[in-house]
Amino acid sequence: MATRHIISIGDFDRQEIDRLLDHAAQIYKKKYNENALHGKILAVLFFEPSTRTRMSFESAMARLGGTSLSVGSVEACSMAKGETLADTIRVVSGYADAIVIRHPKEGAARLAAEFATVPVINAGDGAGQHPSQTLLDLYTIRQSMPIDGIDVALIGDLRYGRTAHSLASALSLYNARLHTISPKGLELPATLVADLQAKGMEITEHDDIREIIGMVDVLYVTRMQRERFPDSASYFNVASSYRITPELLAGANENLIVLHPLPRVDEIDPRVDTSAHARYFEQSRNGVPVRMAMLMDVLK
Ligand code: NCD
User: Fold this and answer.
1) CB under 6 Å to ligand 1: residues?
2) I need a surface site. Which of 59, 94, 113, 280 has the fewest CB within 10 A?
3) How many domains is the chain built from?
4) Which atom of ligand 1 is found nearest the CA of 48?
5) Do the beta carbons of residue 283 and residue 140 sit within 8 Å?
6) What is the pLDDT of residues 150-172, one digit of tens each?
7) Distance, CA 257 to ligand 1 centroid (Å)?
8) What is the CATH number of the domain that holds 215?
9) Considering the entire predicted model, what is its pTM?
10) 4 occurs within a structural domain
């Protein structure tokens, strides 16, 4: 059988996503074998900062009896000596049974998969994709409502935000309608919009979240991806241009849920944390069962 890589959410069809989320739901209820991945090793190659993704992959591995390996910081590994990503991946393939990689360059995970002899999971490639985040986003939505036909507002930096790209693609499999709100210049990439529209997805751009707050089911908030801006002036021009507050949510439909992949900077007022709409901390916790299901898939 060919090595199973997870590079883009497009690697999954609807049936595969649903099966994986069903499996995660079993795991969530503690129905799993604690030794399912005993003896397996996951290499964690992160060339960008991470708290949730990295720790939840490591936690997932540990809960299934497996082990994780990492080089620590980028500065501590041989890429700092000029080794190519291709060589690093070839070497790491000899030390582990799967590789989870995060890299600042779009396409890096796909390149890694070409040189790896073990499964590669993309944990974020620049402004590209973040498929494991999308699976846990979908899982979190499904805990509150069926995904089919929902209205989802994506707000924030939709240009550089990889979580928004992967989620938008996945939602097209569920006939969801997309409402986008972003500062000028940070809109969802035109190629992605065209691609989703060709698949029949309804996508509407709005200037102000207040226009639609009363009719959406999910409000997906993202931070400005400051590290991907060409310079700090262009960041400061748009920073703090939107903020979700309890006052704004007063106009929301009662079942609206607010998601955020985290980390948040100042785009969600902390007073929202205690509102019945807030789901973002639950969402980050869901990273563990969802990644357990993913690891069991690729390492079985
Ligand atoms: C996201 C990422 O790395 O793309 N974080 C995460 O994995 N939860 C979102 C972000 O950094 O803004």
Assistant:
1) 52-53, 124, 130, 133, 162-163, 222-223, 261-262
2) 94
3) 2
4) 3
5) yes
6) 999 999 999 999 999 999 999 99
7) 19
8) 3.40.50.1370
9) 0.97
10) no
